[in-house]
Every structure is written in C-alpha cells, then in structure tokens.
Amino acid sequence: MPLSKILPFLMAAAPLAIAAPALAQTAPAGPAAGVTTQLPRGAAPSHYAIEVTPDAANLKFTGKVTIDVTVATAMPALVLNAADLTVSSVTLTPAKGKAITGTAKVDADAQTVSLDFGKPVQPGSYKLTMVYAGIINQQANGLFALDYTDNEGAAKRALFTQFEAPDARRFVPSFDEPSYKATFDLSAVVPADQLAVGNMPVKATKDIGGGKKLVTFGTSPKMSSYLLFFGLGELDRATKMAGNTEVGVITGRGNTGKAQLALDASAAILPYYNDYFGVPFPLPKLDNVAGPGQSQFFSAMENWGAIFTFERTLLVDPRFTSEETKRAIYEVAAHEMAHQWFGDLVTMAWWDDLWLNEGFASWMATKVTDKLNPEWEALLSRVDGRERAMSLDALKTTHPVVQKITTVDQVNQAFDAITYQKGEAVITMLEGYAGEDAWKAGIQSYMKSHAYGNTVTDDLWKAVEGAGAKGLVSIAHDFTSQPGIPLVKVESAQCQGGNTILTLSQGEFSRDAKDKAPLKWNVPVKAQVQGGEAQRLILQGNGQITLPGCGAYVINAGQTGYYRSLYPAANIQALAKGFSQLSSMDQTGLMADNFQLALGGYQPIGLVLDLVDAVPVNGSPAVLAEVPGYLKSSYDMLEGDAAAQAKVAAYASAKLTPALTAIGYDAKAGEGPQVPVLRTSLVATLGSMGDKGVVAEANRRFVALATNPAALDGPLRNVWLGIIAQNADQATWDKLRVMAKGAKSDLEKSTLYALLGKAKDEKLGQQALDLALTDEPGKTTSAAIIGQVGVAHPMLAVDYVLAHKAQYEALIDVSARSQALARLGGGSADPAMVTKLDAYATQYLTPESRKVVDRSIAAIKTRIETRSRLKAPTAAWFAGKK
After folding, report:
1. pLDDT score of 308
2. What is the DSSP string of 815-832?
3. Most buried in the list 159, 242, 274, 576, measured by CB within 10 Å?
4. Catalytic choice (164, 177, 336, 748)
5. 285-291 and 306-310: which strand pairing?
6. Exposed, middle or buried, 526 (CB in 10 Å: 0-12/13-18/19+)?
C-alpha cells in the first residue's frame, strides 16, 4: 500500500504537550512546499551521529544514533523511516531540558517507525537518540555481506552498504528522503585487522581490546541519507593525488594493481570536472570501492566520497578483460564521479526528478570520456543510448522523463532507459541548441546557486536560459514533461537555385499506438545536404528549411536530435550510394533510425538493409562494428525458419569474414583503437550464428586448454567461451563447470558460472537452473545464471522462477523483485508469455508496482506483430543476395 495512504493517522491531535525547548525554531523544516514526502511534515534532521557494531559472522548488527532534529510545528509523534530494524530504546532531549523517554512502534509495511513520547512534541531543537539492531543482507540492500575467495583460496566476507533509493532506513532509523539533508558522523566497532571505509577519511582509531577497534570518520558535508556509505573487510587501498584531492581505489587484499585503470581514470577526470562544474570537489578524498560478486540491476553507486563498484566493472584481469570492459570501467567511473556534483552536491528534491541525477551523469560521462580519449569515439555510443530509450518510449507503457513517483516500488522501477538514456539524449540536444558556452555557464550557475541543496528540473532550465539560451525552457518542457518520440517526416524535397528546400511535418513515432492523436513538440531540427553546411529550425507542426547544395540530405545531422527522421525512399537510396562519405555518427544514426522505422511499419525493411549492405568492410571500424548487430536481429526475426536463417548467416559470413581475416583473431601491434571492438563484434556475432570458421576456432582453442592453460587468454577469452557454452553438449558443459569451480578469482568464477546458462540445449538450460539454486555458484552469481537461461529459453526460466519464487527472490536485490520476472521473460516472442506475466502481476503486484511487467508485455506483443509482418520481406531480401 502506498505510504501516503498509511501515514495520515499519525498526524492526529493529542491533548497534552511536551514543553518547548528554549531554542525553539518556528521556521518550516523538511521538504519545501509542493515537494513530495512520505513522512509527516514538520520535523527535519540537521545532523546524525551513528555508531554501528557489525557482527559479520552472524549477519546482524547493532547501532546507536543521535539525531539533531528541528521541529517546526507540533507533532503528535516523530515518524522516521526504518526497515528490518528493531528499536530498543528512544530518548528525546530538548536543547535545554531533561531527556524524555519514548516508545517505538515499527510499521514494516510502511517502512516507518513512530516515536511516541506521550505528549505532542512542540516546536524547537532536540537530540533524538535511539538504540537499535538490524540484519546484514546477502544481496545489495542496506548493509550487506559479499562472500568471496581471496587470492590464497581462503573464504572471506566483506561488508558494504547500498542505500539508493530507499534503503538507508535498513541501516539507521532516519529521515530517508532526498530533501532531508543533514551532516553525518559515523563510527564503527570493527575487527582490528580490517579496513573500514566511509564517505570521509578516518578521523580517529581507538583500540578497545578483544581484537576490536573503534573507527571514527570525519564529519560529512550536508547530504541526503542515500549517499551515506560504510565498508569493511580485509581490504587494501591505493591512492594518488588529483590537485588537492586524494583519489583512491579499495579492493580485496592483493588486488589494487587490477584497479590501476580506474585509479588513473579518476585522477584524470576529477580536474576536468572541477573546471567544468565551476565548483571544486568539496571532500578531501574520493575512493572507488570494489566489491566482489554482482547485482543483476546495478553496477555502481555514487556515495559521496566513496563510490561503490562491483569488481566486474572496476578490476582489469589481463587474462580475460576485453577492450569493451576497459572502456566501460572508464565510463562507469566517469558516470559515478559526475554524480558527485549532479546528485550529491545538488540533489533532486524528490524521485520524480531522478533523471537530474542519472541523465546528467550519463551525458557527462560520455562527454569527458570523449574529451580525454578521443580515439575511442565515445560520442557514437549516444546513438545506442538513444535507441535504448526509444525502444521504451515508442510503447504505450512509456513515461515522461520527469515522472510522478509515489511508492517505494515506483522509485526502484524509475531507474530505466528513459531516466538514463533519454535523459542523456535530451541533454545532448539541448546543449546543441544552447551552444557549449551558454550551456556550461548555465550548469556552473546552477551548481553554485544550489550547492548542498535540492532542486527540481525547472531550476536547471532557468539557469541555462539565464546564461543566454533563449527559448530553451519551452523546448526542454516538451521533451521532459511528456512521453514519446517526435516523428519528423520529409514531405517534399526540391532543388532550386543550388539549394534544397525541404518541407517537413511533425507527427509521433509509435510501435503500438499509431491511431492516437500525436503529441506536439518544439523540435530542434539540424539538417544538411551531404557535404553542405548545416541549417537549424525549431519545428512546430509543419515547416520549411533551405539547405545549401543539392543531393542526398540528412535531417538529424550529427544525430543530436531526439526524434525519428522519415525520408522518401529515393533519399535513403541516395544516402546508401554515398554512405562512406557520411560522418561515422550519421552512418551509425541512420542505420539505427531506419531500422526502427522499418520495425514500426513506417517503411520497407529493405531500405535499411540496403544501408547496412552499403557499409564498407574497409571503412570505419566503429561503424562496421555496428553491422553484426543488425544481421543478428534479422537472424532472430526469422526464428523458426531454419532455411531463411541460414541465408542470413551465409550473408553475414560473406560480408564480415573478409574484415575478420584482415584484422585476425588476435591483437596486432599498432592496430587502430577501434579494431579490438570490431574484432569482438565480428567474432561474437558470427559465432552465435554458427559460422563454421569461427566455431571451429573456438573449439580449437577450447581443446588446446588441455595442454595449454593459457590457450584462451586474452581480451576475447569470454567471447570464445560464450560460443563454446552456447553450442555445448553435456561433456562440454561439464568441462565448463569444472573450470568455474577451479577459477583463480571470484571475478573469473562468476563469469564462468553465468556462461553455463547460455546453452541452446534446453536440457542443459534446466541443469543450469538447478545448479543456480545450490550454494556452489555463490549468492550473487546464481541470479546471473538464471538470467542467461532467460535469454536462450525465456519460458523455461520464467516457469522455473515461478516454481521456486521464494528461493529466487533470495538471490536478487529486494529493490528489484517486482521487475525481475518481467526482465526474464521480456525478450520472448511467445503469446503464452504475455498471459503468464499478466497472471503473475495480477497475483503478486500492485497497480503501482507492475509497470515493468506491463512494459515487457507490450514489448512481447509488439515483437510478435513485427515478426509476423517482416519475416517474409526480410527473408526475401537475404534470399536475393549472392
């Protein structure tokens, strides 16, 4: 039940009153008017002093907290957030006066604790002290434990915290909402031989005997509760200076060398951010803390001064870390560091504006990665990001960037491609409209004005428009306050006097609601004739734009616009003829855009396949690396028609093998920076479609392991093993399992176990599911195995999870339980899956928490319709190729 429906009874008046302390404050406390809160208004914290004593062996902890609270209006009781906590004592001490003993009543459903002192609490300043106890979870919620094997093969356990969105309440009774900012003092009683980590550096360490020490961290800046962090274990720390800030990486003992890439990235990125944001990083240190294992739903968390990242996205192992993973490590570090400003220093007032955190961090990470590593062509990733967002935004089940959040489940489900990738795409478009200088000036003004405070989306738009971007607010409102995708259509193109005059119309792109009245946007269009000067237009309904030159044209030049571009067939054919003369960004964007237009029924599939066919094998490696994905999508579309799939596989081999032959299976000295990415794309896709040469090479290397343990070592190790796992028979599957058991590190072990779920053989898929429910793979690896089975055999995985629901839910984060089944079954094209997911949601979920299930159902229905419509023309196109 929504918390807003549960709490009002706590506001009832009472006949008696606690005397007001001498330093009473009557100013309003807590969230500003109009900002959502699920706690009664009238009381707010300014400081927390927390002391915790973890008992890692028994998965429990005790704590004591003293909170400086200001009460603005008389309160019948003080209500804080608490989940999985028991409160044993409560006292309330006025600024001048005697302590008052209270009673605590925990409401597990509401995740609150009501503190009753027998009389209403009058306005004033108080110290609220509670003694409490809690549990240590084994998935990433609240204070949690991760078990692993160290480099000597010994079993170890480390503790970390994960509080976003609403899980600080599992660590300490607190005002656990982003608007209730406060400073934090954190202390912990820990084993003397272990390293404790917090947001701030350690201020004091005291030996208290019995093999224990009391560690006290420095006082944090004013921040939201979800940014508090605590870590503990047999850990090492490596550091370097970035200006006045000590940046560090913290890993299991003996592994800091594997985190050198992340450490170097942090040291390079921080000065850039200090300059860009105009506000220097305000903490004395910034650590990136590596945790073993994994979550199926997040990789890293931006705790202020103490970023937490799972090892798989932080550590580099030369035996198997791919080039793509290395770049992901850099970008994830950049994303979480951007949050130190967008999210930590300036925080959204409520989760409706979550995109202010995530969209901006995604955009900033891409920007800084491109600035500091231009050879990676990181901006091309924005096309893929745009497409991930549009895949959700084209369905009736989409939502605006700024969305209404009322329940805990809705907060957890808000972390999606609309929040992240649409957010990034809209920011990219708006920066292009404003210009880099005005945009940067607006960001700096926003940071300085709202440091240590909370904001809503309009605060940012006003700052950027105030810096010179006139008209930006209305454009921004259109793209963030309403859902959907503009469709910009070229109605006519005429060459007159050496110019091309385009007549444009605006509609709305949709996969499943074409009959509804389209929404309207102010669309910033940037168009150009190939090789000509770009021109701009704010399109409102219909409009015309005149482009210098005549010839093939692009109406989303540079691919910075968040809209679909629908061309006459003749223009696409003309673009295909001169495809290699287009920029890499436009080549990538045109393929993506036209593929989705074909899937949506707006144009024939053959037009985009002609564009894919036009990509030269000796052109941009970054663009060629996109081609295998379109061929694999075509292959999957023809599921059930083996002959037609064989035609696609034959075409893929004929087109891509020359490129693979040219670059080889193994890295060469002096090869271009994008060649390793291309190699991965070619090998993985050809292998998945059964290319004889690639499969034979995978088998050769796998057999060679018997005499050469390093036969598979290198950046393609996991790609080769993925091909082996996909095509495995029982004997091969058993060998992979033996490899997983004997893996040298937890990172390698978890990867190998997950591969056991990839087998095309359904019997082996069943074995993988059964294995996942044992203790063998590890608490955080089992869900990854089930997830892999869900890719190859979605119905098998969904049925298994439904039959073992409680056991499965113990393997995933609490915050992800309402969406896990939808993700497992969401890639299906089976009508029976629609019925199954709907029945599950009806039985187990509330209307507010079934959003991800409804999205998966919509995607499945759309996939079924699309395959039915496009199977024949897709098969015909490939059949026509020699």
Report:
1. 98
2. GGHHHHHHHHHTT---HH
3. 159
4. 336
5. parallel
6. buried
Cβ atoms 563, 488 nearer than 8 A:
yes
Token digits of residue 151: 């480099």
3-class DSSP state for residue 169?
Answer: helix
Residue with tokens 């003996």: 254
User: Residue 17 has what pLDDT?
Assistant: 37
- Residue 684 has which token pair? 């993985």
Per-residue model confidence (pLDDT) at position 8:
28
| Cβ neighbours, 10 Å, residue 88 | 11
Q: How many CA atoms, within 13 angstroms, populate the side-chain half-sphere of residue 792?
A: 26
Distance from C-alpha of 378 to C-alpha of 368, rounded to nearest angstrom: 9
Low-confidence ranges of the chain (pLDDT < 70): 1-29
Cα 67 from Cα 181, distance rounded (Å): 12
CA distances from 6 to 10, 39, 80 (A): 9, 10, 13
Instruction: Please give the Cα distance from 120 to 22 (Å, whole number).
Output: 16
- Exposed (0-12), middle (13-18) or buried (19+): which is 760, by Cβ within 10 Å? middle
Whole-number pLDDT of residue 414: 82
Q: What is the pLDDT of residues 755-775, one digit of tens each?
A: 999 999 999 999 999 999 999
Neighbouring C-beta atoms of residue 314, cutoff 10 Å: 29
For residue 761, the tally of other CB atoms under 10 A from its CB is 17
DSSP string, 622-673: HHHTTHHHHHHHHHHHTTT-HHHHHHHHHHHHHHHHHHHHHH-SS--TT--T
Contacts of 536 (CB under 8 A, 6+ apart): 524, 525, 526, 527
Note the pLDDT of residue 292. Answer: 93
Structure tokens at 424: 């990034």
Quote the distance between the C-alpha of residue 408 and its chain's center: 18
**390: nearest Cα among 425, 366, 362, 361:** 425
pLDDT attached to residue 408:
74
Order the strands of the 235-242 sheet from edge to edge. Answer: 235-242, 245-252, 285-291, 306-310, 300-301
Is 871 exposed, middle or buried, given 0-12, 13-18 or 19+ CB atoms closer than 10 A?
middle
Dmax (CA) for the chain in angstroms is 90
Q: Is 336 a catalytic residue?
A: yes
Compute the distance between CA of residue 612 and CA of residue 592 in angstroms, rounded to an integer. 10
Rg (alpha carbons) of the chain, rounded to whole number: 28
Length of the chain: 882
Task: At 386, give phi and psi (nearest 5°).
Answer: -55, -40
Reported as a single tens digit per residue, the pLDDT across 413-471 is: 788 899 999 999 999 999 999 999 999 999 999 999 999 999 999 999 999 999 999 99
Task: Report the distance separating Cα 413 and Cα 854, nearest Å.
Answer: 12
Do 83 and 48 meet the contact criterion of CB atoms below 8 Å apart? no
Q: Locate 182 and state its tokens.
A: 């406060």
Judge whether 134 and 60 are in contact, CB under 8 Å: yes
Contact 858, 395 (CB under 8 A): yes
CA distance 430 to 676: 33
How distant is the alpha carbon of residue 129 from its chain centre? Answer: 36
Cis peptide before 743 (omega within 30 of 0): no
User: In 108-193, where does DSSP find H-type helix?
Assistant: none
Q: Residue 236: beta bridge partners?
A: 251
Half-sphere exposure of residue 459, counting CA atoms within 13 Å on the CB side? Answer: 19
